[in-house]
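Now for today's protein:

——
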Amino acid sequence: MALYHFRSNLCGISYSPHFSIHHPFILIHQKDQLKSINDLPLELFQAILLRVQAKDLFRLKFVSKLWFSLISDSNFVELHLHHSSGFAPSLFFNKNNEEARLVDLHALYNEDEEILHAAIKDVPLPFGNNKKERDSYYFVVPGSYRGFVFLHREPGFIIIWNPVTGSCKKVSHGYSIKKDAILYGVAYDASNDDYLIVIAAKRYRVDCFSLRTNSWIKIDAVFPFPISILRQCLFYSPGLFFNGAIHWMIIQDSCYKDMLIFDVKERSFSTMALPEKDHVGTLSDLVILGECLALYLLSYDNGKKTKIWVMKEYKVQSSWTLYQIHNICMIPLVLSSNGSDFIMQDTKGDKIYKCNLEGELLQCFQLFSDVIHGAFFRRCTVYTQSLATLPNNN
């Protein structure tokens, strides 16, 4: 079998003769006769398409009716989602309420100028020409899941948006998160293929918005400690969705206390101990590193230090593993593709660093020259592309 160069003029995508995740298309030479890629067995053709990134697949849908049918199929979309962990994640950053910047975190350090140039892309946010929505308050970014980015404007509404497919929904709510809410978060309920917005108000009720039913419902969930204690706690984070649950760090008596967990399938709360009870004043949050739940603490006492706790086995306390980076404070984003380095951003947000697991600084990349200092936190999230659509939005 010989490999040949394939080009789609319609989509403007060119693939080299090398068969890989980045160059998956092949033509088969058999007895001096070239066979079209459409003549491949369907299973093989599907296996090839699963190696293509979502942004390219979305354009390839329009090559032919066959390709459109296959790439649009809900089963294929789910299969591609499960393969997405093999693709490089991006940093999604809300620049100015008009554009977002997508940065391929693994391609930043490539020496090939063409690949490096393609690693950074600006895309318009889904607000159209609604200047009032754009300018009233900058949108924070609570997180991303299954290729959807969540954008929250205080007060008023949350937007759920897939930058690849354009699938988008605006969810209005009557809360001021800063004034009314004790905690909030966004999640995906796999058992019902449903995206949820969870808000617990100071009047001690938990409301949940379901995109599938397009409605708000009250959740009769019991908190694992007295409500009076809950009101005294501070939740600086919109929560991190991981392993079917939203996780928040609880702050009580000026110290990080425990982790509050909301299971979206069971609609129930529980707690989990943190690996260390650090004093509030250091910047801290939960992240996902290498498909593991992780916690970082930035300390400025007795010199700068970044501490990263990784829970290598979920809910197993003994699996917490500590990594430390001295003389600098940075926010971990992801593990490198080979799992041997942290890719991190500085607290101002204009630089991306690579550090090994021993804490040695390896590389630095100047990312933003026009960042608004002091407003970068909560304007970005780690994002992986997908072809997913929203419930009732197929």
Q: What stands out?
A: The first strand starts at residue 6 and ends at 8. The CA atoms of residues 348 and 374 lie 7 Å apart. The chain is about 15% helix and 40% strand. Residues 1-34, 371-375 have pLDDT under 50 and may be disordered.
